[in-house]
Write a structure and sequence with these properties.
With 474 residues, the protein is an alpha+beta fold. The protein folds into three domains: 204 residues, no CATH class; 96 residues, Orthogonal Bundle (Helix Hairpins); 148 residues, Histidine kinase-like ATPase, C-terminal domain (Heat Shock Protein 90). It has twelve helices and eleven strands. It has a five-stranded mixed sheet with strand order 6-8-9-11-10. The protein has a four-stranded antiparallel sheet with strand order 2-1-4-3. Helix 6 packs antiparallel against helix 8. Bound molecules: adenosine-5'-diphosphate (ADP). Adenosine-5'-diphosphate binds next to helix 10 and helix 12.
Length: 474
């Protein structure tokens, strides 16, 4: 429970720090992006100012002379028409038509864009852009008459705000904040001529400005992404390692508990036997002495076996198996192993044999092979709450012998099935002494099978039983 809590805290802390890191990186990148964007705008604005100055100096024009001439003659025509009609107003459709005409003239007959483009190219920057002309106000002007044709909302509010500022000499209260666009405002034109008054803005829009910024900040963007990726993977690896270490340390604790328990039983029997031998009543009875001595001997052998087992684990860890292979006739050899199991620990188990390997011979280490089969058989008996019924099946397939040991025991759930071959792993997780063991039997089985270039697998259903299959090439 405590461990779960700690694990969750670590996980939460990790996720929290990663989120903070990602947010920080996003803020930084956004800042860099905005800065680059502004720098780019500034650069183009400066270049454009230079270009406009050059145009004025060299050609005495701002690039809109032709357009103005066309608009002027159209305005004159309109004013004449109104005079003939003896009216001071224009209908909505006439206004719209006039506005469209002016807009078209400005867009079609301007020379500024071509000049700017050439100038940008000369300065070694991107020359492809889209120009945009925004008309703010257009009025026809005739001596003392002003006939409004068009007034943009934004321009009107700007004028209002300016008037307000002049009156109150303070900051305008409801001045609209300029709208952030991707366009760069190059110049505002506002002039009154013989027949009209025109205010408009000339803007440029770099279609691949985003790409240009991206190119410029690519290195820092990649670095940010890389650092995020690095931190996330480091966190995952560390967390996984931590969990694995925790699991191993739990397994080791379980093993020590089980081992202590296993060692205590023969030791206490020997102690009691020693005390018994000290009693005068016993000493005079030769039969009792012999019985006690036999018990001491048996328990010492058991103790010895346990200690050897521990010694063996560390030896197996350090060195590869040294198999002493012998050619054996598998049918007879398997029969022998099962027979001696039946007369030993397997007393009481019903064992059905269902194999016929004929005269097939196979090279195995007889001692290790016997240990492997014995471990599986004794587990089949040990992990069974009723009368054990074991079925041993054998066949050959793809130049491999298959030995399948099925039992009617308690079974193993799916999660444990993945781990039971690990060192020290016990399915009921440790300290439960109902089934004695150290979590090494199946670890040995796998090691021995692998040393014979074979394999062992399990399939099981809790409550129904388990099937262990050993395959070994021949
Ligand atoms: P041990 O028997 O000493 O605990 P093993 O390595 O032999 O260690 O087995 C590991 C675990 O696999 C056991 O703790 C047990 O829960 C489970 N197990 C092994 N064989 C069987 C079986 N035939 N039926 C049910 N569970 C089994």
């Amino acid at each position: 429970m405590k461990c779960m809590k700690k694990r969750n805290t670590i996980l939460l802390l990790g996720i929290f720090s990663i989120i903070i890191l990602i947010t920080a990186q996003i803020i930084i990148i956004r800042g860099v992006w905005r800065q680059k964007d502004e720098m780019l705008n500034l650069r183009y604005r400066l270049f454009s100012q230079d270009a406009l100055e050059l145009l004025a100096r060299q050609w005495s024009t701002d690039g809109f002379d032709t357009a103005r001439m066309i608009i002027s003659s159209k305005s004159e025509l309109m004013l004449k028409m109104m005079e003939e009609r003896k009216t001071d107003t224009l209908s909505a459709s006439e206004k719209k038509e006039l506005f469209d005409y002016v807009s078209l003239a400005l867009n079609k007959e301007e020379d500024l864009s071509a000049f700017l483009s050439r100038y940008f190219e000369l300065r070694g920057t991107d020359k492809d852009f889209i120009s945009k002309i925004v008309i703010n106000r257009f009025e026809l002007v005739d001596y003392n008459r002003r006939i409004p044709v068009y007034l943009s909302e934004e321009f009107a509010s700007r004028m209002l705000a300016r008037a307000d500022t002049i009156r109150r000499n303070g900051p305008p209260p409801n001045m609209r904040r300029p709208v952030r666009t991707r366009e760069i405002l190059i110049k505002r034109f506002g002039n009154e001529y013989n027949y009209y008054r025109l205010d408009f803005e000339y803007r440029i829009d770099f279609s691949d400005k985003q790409k240009m910024i991206l190119r410029e900040i690519a290195a820092s963007l990649a670095l940010s992404l890389f650092s995020i990726l690095l931190v996330v993977s480091l966190f995952i690896i560390t967390y996984k390692n931590l969990m694995e270490e925790k699991r191993l340390s739990n397994l080791k604790t379980d093993f020590i508990n089980n081992m202590t328990h296993e060692l205590k039983t023969p030791l206490s029997t020997i102690t009691v036997a020693g005390r018994t031998l000290e009693m005068p009543v016993i000493r005079s009875n030769e039969e009792k002495i012999l019985e006690t001595a036999k018990m001491i001997g048996k328990q010492s052998v058991h103790l010895n076996q346990l200690i050897n087992m521990i010694l063996e684990i560390s030896m197996w860890e350090r060195t590869q198996f040294q198999l002493e292979k012998k050619r054996v006739r598998i049918q007879g050899f398997l029969n022998e192993i099962i027979d001696s199991f039946k007369s030993g620990g397997g007393n009481g188990a019903v064992i059905a044999r269902n194999y016929d390997f004929g005269e097939l011979e196979i090279e195995v280490d007889p001692v290790y092979f016997t240990t492997m089969i014995n471990n599986l058989l004794s587990n089949a008996v040990k992990y069974c709450d009723t009368e054990p019924v074991i079925e041993i099946e054998g066949f050959t397939l793809d130049n491999k012998i298959n030995i399948r040991i099925a039992d009617n025991g308690i079974g193993i759930n799916k999660n444990d099935q993945k781990r039971i071959f690990d060192k020290f792993y016990r399915a009921s997780s440790g300290n439960i002494h109902k089934y004695k063991g150290l979590g090494l039997g199946l670890y040995y089985v796998r090691k021995i099978a692998e040393a014979h270039e074979g394999d062992v697998t399990v399939s099981s259903k809790p409550g129904k039983g388990s099937i262990f299959t050993i395959t070994i090439p021949y």
